[in-house]
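B., you asked whether I could sanity-check this one before it goes into the benchmark set. Here's the sequence:
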Amino acid sequence: MVSKLQSDPDIDFAYFTFGDLAVGLGPALTQAGIDVTIGGSVPNAQNLEVMEQAGSGFWVAIPTETNAWVILDTAARALDTGQPVESYYPIPVFTPDNVTTTTDEVPAYPTDIGDQFRELWQVN
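And here's what the prediction gave me:
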């Protein structure tokens, strides 16, 4: 990654499909004198800490709790109708301006998503 960024100074942003792929990149880029913004999806705690310290970038998260409820709902709808089903749900986008915690677990949003699905399904 460092070599590619050194060879093409027009690149000013590096996007990673998984946060683990970017671990350790910040110090390597600093040592090489390369200034690029780093971001991506599925961040880990270190990604969020580095982003907050750098004051730039973004990370799109996929909360496991939200994902689980939506997958279950989608599967139930597909089985019920026998048709393909599209599902959508809100995902958090972390920036240096809104990151308030750097835990390994990405919070579910909305925070009561399980209760909302149970109400929708009319189950306890």
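One thing to flag: The longest strand covers residues 37-41. Otherwise nothing jumped out at me.
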